[in-house]
Amino acid sequence: MKQRIQTSILAFLIFIPLVVIGGIIFELFVYLLAVIALMELTRMRNTTNGYLPVIFSVIFLVLLLLPESVGILQGIEKPELLMLFVLILLSYTVVAKNKFTFDDAGFILLTIVYVGMGFYYLIETRDGNSASGLANLFYVLVVIWATDTGAYFFGRAFGNRKLWPKISPNKTIEGAIGGIVLATLVGIIFHIAYPFSYDIIIIIAVTILVSIAGQIGDLVESAYKRYYDVKDSGKLLPGHGGILDRLDSLLFVLPLLHFINFFT
After folding, report:
1. Which stretches does DSSP call E strand in the chain?
2. Cα(238)–Cα(67) distance, rounded to whole angstroms?
3. How many domains does the chain contain in total?
4. What's residue 216's pLDDT?
5. What is the pTM of this model?
6. Does residue 91 sit in the same domain as residue 201?
7. In terms of CB atoms within 10 Å, which of 12, 85, 134, 197 comes out highest?
8. pLDDT in tens, 95-125
9. CA distances from 95 to 52, 55, 90, 113 (A)
10. Residue 97 shares a structural domain with residue 138
11. Containing domain of residue 96, as a range?
12. Do 252 and 220 touch, CB atoms closer than 8 A?
């Protein structure tokens, strides 16, 4: 527990100032996090045949993260970029003589979309068109943290019924509900301090959606680890695991909020 707390404090002291600063420094930091997360998932499945799939994956992940205004992407939209990568991956299954399989190609493609879109919208939330990007990102962060905190303490105090024991045996229905309740209270307080241009009912509904989506994101990453029989996605954060272990909820929530045009 001591190591876990020390790592949390250190990560907080690094991450929060970079969020506040924003701009190119924050974006480069996000690129680094995304590449590490990609490597964590790739190692988890252990599918690569040599270094070429890894190199391809990193290049296309970075291209997916870049804003479309960047010169190298002008005239090329994200779906076209992904389709190009699909063709390259499928071609490589032939070059590798099926040592790199269709299943491997599908896994890498899904991984890039999962990681790439999550971190892309992390940058978009902070440094996109909205002037309130910093407040928007802090709203998401505090709601996710409140969900995790509420789920932990409610689960320990009242948890009896398992939420999804085959995927995450320690999570309980009571904990999940407690996480939603605490997240909703925190979301209301945040709205009072930094008002959104929405009625309070909308804020409550969106906060509940964020809390549920964050918990689903956590379960998705737990399912990955359970399926590939690993305890943590990585070892970068002692006591916590890897980057995905800490940011799995965020990768689910941010795209969803942009899809419903909450951040305008």
Report:
1. 162-164, 168-172
2. 33
3. 2
4. 94
5. 0.89
6. no
7. 85
8. 888 788 888 888 889 999 999 999 999 999 9
9. 11, 16, 9, 24
10. no
11. 1-127
12. yes
